Amino acid sequence: MKEDRLDRIEEMLTSIIAMVGKTNSIQQSMENRLQGLENRFQGLEDRIQGLENRMQGLENRMQGLEDRMQGLENRMQGLEDRMQGLEDRMQTMENTMQGIIAEQAEIRKENEIRFNKIDEKIDSLLADQDHIWEKAVRNEREITKIKRHLDVL
Question: d(Cα 19, Cα 8) in Å, to the nearest integer?
Fold first, then answer.
C-alpha cells in the first residue's frame, strides 16, 4: 500500500510539476503578451504625443490665421471708413457742384439780360448815328445849296 501511495504521490507530484510547468509557460506567455501590449501601448502613447504636437502646431497655425484674419478685418474696416469719407466728400462736392451750376444759371440769366440791354443801347446808338449822319448829309447839302446860292449872288 505504501507503494500505491507513493505512486499516487508521485503521480500527483508529476501532475503538480506539469501544472506548475504549464502555469510557468502560461505566465511566460502572459508576460510576453503583456510586454507586447506595453510596447503597443508605448507606440500608441508616442502616436498620441505626435498627434498632440501636430494638434498644437495646427492650433498655432489657426491662431496665426485668426490673427491675420483680424488684421484683414481691421484693414477692411479702415478701407470702409475711408470709403465712407470719400462718399461724404463726393456728396459735398456734388452739392457744391449743384450750387455752382445754379449760380452759373443765374449768372447766365443776368448776362443775357445785360447783353439784351447793351444790344438795345447799341441798336439805339446805331439808329441815332444813322439819324445824325442823315442830318449831317442833309445839312451838308443845304450848306452846299446855300453856298451856291451865295456864289450866284
Answer: 16
125 φ, ψ to 5°? Answer: -65, -40
Amino acid in position 21: G
What distance in Å separates the CA atoms of residue 104 and residue 110, rounded to the nearest whole number? 10
Q: How far is CA 42 from the centre of its chain?
A: 51
Burial class (CB in 10 A: 0-12, 13-18, 19+), 140: exposed
Mean pLDDT for 43-72 is 96
How many residues in the chain? 153
- DSSP class of residue 31? H
**What's the longest Cα–Cα distance across the chain?**
216
- Residue 30 burial (10 A CB sphere; 0-12, 13-18, 19+): exposed
d(CA 45, CA 53): 12
**What are the residue boundaries of the structural domains of the chain, listed by start?**
1-112
Write the pLDDT tens digit of every residue in 15-32.
Answer: 888 888 888 888 999 999
